[in-house]
Amino acid sequence: MYKTSKMVKIGIIGTNKFAKQHIEQLKKNSKFNLIGIYSHDLAEANKAAQEFNIKPFNSYDSFLKSIDVIDLASSKKNYYNDAVSALKNSKHLLLKNIKNYTKDEVESLIKLANEANVQIQIYNNEQFSPSFISAKKYFDNPMYVEAQYFINYEKNEKKLPNVVDLIYTDLNLSLSVIRSNAKTINATSLSIINDSSDIINARITFDNGSVINLTAGRISNKNTHICKFFQRDTIIKIDFNNSQTQISKKGTKRVLFEKLELTDSNQIFHQLSNFYNSIEKNLQPTINIENELKILDIFEKILNKIRLTSNQI
Questions:
Q1: Is the same domain home to 104 and 235?
Q2: First-to-last CA distance in the chain?
Q3: How many H-runs (helices) and E-runs (strands) does the chain carry?
């Protein structure tokens, strides 16, 4: 669309916790000029604007005319039309996620972005975490991925975590390093205490022989999020909750263990800078919507398997 070395004008859509974290990081990022905030809930937009000393917009048209980039920090389905309007007005777009959209809706966003020659990036805190970034240079065709994501069970918690969301997170992570097409997909779920799924397991095989095994649950005595990547001569273990990455390598006489030093960086800040670079150099974003659509297709097949085997989501 254009190249620039000056600050890019950006606006936030949404007033949730996620949106407020973004506002904090945008205020620290010299690459962006935070113009203001918009929400369907005008009262909440005004409240957030006052809290962070930014401009509230009561009109979406006025909001669009004032910015170059939209940070759509809300994943609510009712903001989809706003995303469409942004692309039709040649605005770059940051999306929290696309898993609440249909395949046709995502394909429409891709088509509009291509026509307008603008970029769409999807947020992914795990792939921009220091523990995952430190491991990236060690990935060399992993053939088996084992991921476990468990949430501490709180009996009186008002809003239970959705186990499906946990599976999607690790599916996304795993597919970022598996360079092959899915061959078979099996999945099952079990309701132990609640009416919906408390634990889900999904196993995916690929044309190149690699395998992903994902397990997620919300009944545990502690929070656990560990991914292990097995490849020739090396095992990469990432503990996201404790921000630790360990490399196990085959030595001449024994297995060598190395705990990596991690860089201290904020995932949101890093993603914003990465997207700025994509805009400036007209490069495809690291977490782009085309790849996310492929992941969404496999995710939908996992959900369909669960519906067939247990009728629980």
A1: no
A2: 41
A3: 9, 14
